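Working notes for the structural subgroup meeting. M.R. asked for a predicted model of this chain before we commit to crystallization trials. I am recording the input and output together here so anyone reviewing the notebook later can reproduce the run.

Input as submitted:
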Amino acid sequence: MSVDTAQPCTRDAVAELISIARERESAMFTEAEGKSLLSAFGIDTPRGIEIAVGQMISDDIREPLVVKAISSTLVHKSDAGGVRVGVRRDEIDEVAARMGEQLAAAGHRLNGLLVEEMVPSGHEVIVGAVRAPGLGWTVMVGLGGVLVEIFEDVAFGLAPLANEQILAMLHELRGMKVLDGARGGERADIPALVTLISRLAGPNGLLQSLPDDVIEIDLNPVIVSGTRAVAVDARFVVGPVEVAESAREDDDGRATDFTPLFHPRRIAVLGASGQRPNLANRFIRNILGGGFDGTIVPIHPTSDSIEGLPAVRSLSEVDQPIDYAFVALPATRVGEALSRGAGRVRFAQVVSSGFGEVEEGQDLEKTLVQTVRDAGIRLIGPNCLGTHASAGRLSFVPDAPLTPGTTAVVSQSGGLSVDILRVGSLRGIDFHSVVSIGNGADVTAAELVESALRNDEVRVIGLYLESLAAAREVLDVLTQAEMRKPVVLLAGGRTSEGSRAATSHTGALAGNHRLWPAIARQAGMTLVDSLEDFATALHALSTLDLRVKPNGRDAVLFGNGGGASVLGADALERQGLATPPLADSVVEELDDLGLPPGNGLRNPIDVPAGTLAVKSGAIAKDVLAVVLAGSEPAVLISHLNVGIIQRNLGETHGDVTGTVIDSIAGARDEATSNTHQLLVLKTDGSADTEALIKTYAHRARTRGIPVFPAFEDAALAARAVLEQGQRTYQASRDADGR
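Returned structure, recorded in token form:
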């Protein structure tokens, strides 16, 4: 079988290869069969031919040669002595004899030989793909050849991949410097490598054409020289077809209008008790306490009133449309109760558990989904806690923060959604909404993200996801969307678990800890590690004016405390930002301000409390005006030790901290630079200082300055703002060009 054929492979031909592979113990295509597929899609492979032992090869296959064993049971040829390089034509029979003996000793039978021209030396790269339900093809690129699983210098992406996404994967590799010709080495032909990966995993690549039976592919190694990228080995693995549950599509093909969910006027509550208050009773009390001024309709089969409100026996007796139904019934009763709301209920949130999250409830969940679809109801949940909508005065949390804001959060965890509301509110976030979706059996995270992108009330989107399949759906939405907004992702289950017992290197390395960052990078989401980081990033993105378009990733630090500034610079460096020295001309201008002695003016700009006392704090505006006129950092972070300022200056110089905050805003407003201003307010731990910081933080936020308790938070916020600001800006430009 000729390897360098460029004849197109038909679906029938691939199906035949799959059928033959299933009969082999290895469940794999032969290398020659795999390379014929690669060649059909324009992927460079060595010239060669598959022959029987003892068969002569034609003269047009040029020496030196590579001889590889063909065996129905052999997976890793090199480990079993099944590869010889630098072979002459007249040595093939001798090589085959020795190879047969070695394979036999390892329990394999030599069925034939693949003889190829030897490819000139270059860098060894692995390119692979593994198929997973709900994710599709996960693509890996890395360095190392046979050492890939030792060094694990790999990057992942999800097909289909655009060329710029392939480049982003390559630049994640620690070994990218090697490919770029570090220390006088050969510079790899990166465009050729990108082309190879694109022909495998691009929008019209080989992966898109393969049947579901092909589940793993390894091209290891791909030899990348200065002029070529060649797949010198190819492994195609056949396996069982695993089909993920498909997402719901509305019967009329139109996107759901979620306005009634976030601005409900009539709410039904199913599951409240007339005798023993429970979760549903507490929900009624929450929305009454939060000032909901619409109609609440308790549904109860026997009670005439619940929580002082007139009750009705069933949803079938409700004579007006219900925007939102809160359902806290036993799992086995939910479907029948909601079926009575056919044509009356727009959204039903089932907080009950006992559905698809446990094996015995999976059939019950499928039945519930079918029931609500037949009834024309959109289902949120089950196995969740509820929906919070500030403007709608709707919340499942007691004493909920209901100041309407522009941050919309979708959470697969109900419990964490409570924490998001509480922690986020303390950080200064005003929420548009927080929706806990639990199992996401009908309404998905991706659908809510798509709705938020269309909703003018939403500026920033936050996601807590535990399912890679749900993240893949979000990726598809963000990739296809014409509008872009900042998105922050907190992912659950970011461990090395999740990699499969796989025949390919790719499958073995495809752990969750690598796939979450890959999805976030490809979707343009900022990935964070903790709830606190999540709130930090959302606070910054919802407070700052993202129409400001900074250049680069430089930062300037200004404030009191030299040691603190050093720590701040370290924190920024960990987030990929730099604090370069200010130009001599800027330093000279700062020096000309006549500041008291003891200042550091290079960057960080360290000033003692005595300097901040000049003009009762208004000197800060003069300093920052000089900095912004003579430089254009991406971010300017001011930091104030509130306790020290208050103790040393409070009685003699007035409200220095408040004046500095106003000065920061004033310098920003009068400058022409594209710089984001952030503020760190540090405490000494005393109750008085904490109370002051709360007041000052509110003062700064009302001026559009996000406030953080530590440098680490400000640095992470700066990274999120620069990442998301650039992506939002680029997306808006792309949309304008359509």
